[in-house]
Amino acid sequence: MRVIAGLYKGRKLESSKDLSIRPTTDRVKEYIFNILQNFPQNKKILDIFSGSGSLGIEALSRGASSVVFVDKAVSSINILRRNLKNLSISKDQFAIVNSDAVEYVNDSGQKMDLCFMDPPYVYPPMQELVDKFFAKKLLNSGGILAVEHEISNPVEQENSIYRIFSQKKIGRSLISFFEEKAD
Predict the structure, then answer these.
(1) Backbone dihedral angles phi then psi of residue 125, each to the nearest 5 degrees
(2) Of 10, 14, 25, 118, whose CB is crowded by the most CB atoms within 10 A?
(3) What span, in angstroms and rounded, lies between the C-alpha atoms of 105 and 70?
(4) Residue range 38-91, pLDDT digits in tens
(5) What is the CATH number of domain 26-180?
């Protein structure tokens, strides 16, 4: 696993050896950032299920102002800390929160410009998490939620609060981009 573009381009990232964790492949990361283009520049990012930090670090490499990394696995947080240290990323550019995703969304009131969610292979509360995320209004105006989820664990295409504006199947995964519906 590596950083694809920007300040840390080509730098390797450590990842977990736990086979139950789905690492974000370079192919998926390239697709996500091709859709986002320059969107992450100077934006506040939330990386839920951050794991090794691959998506959030890619956003920092491409000019994001800051990232909040959220993961409940201490082993993942330890890998994330090593990756941030190895890249010499300034501590004022990130925060690390050891929390369950649903609990974090329930308790957070902090608005972000872009959120990544990359849950484990089997994550039954995916729909609940996306619904709560939008109900809590955790995105700034014009913000984007990018989710990598299993094809067998789809998220509702549209409801009264949000809509999917882009989606692609890559292997076993669906990459879905959500935005809040205009009033």
Answers:
(1) -85, 25
(2) 118
(3) 10
(4) 999 999 999 999 999 999 999 999 999 999 999 999 999 999 999 999 999 999
(5) 3.40.50.150
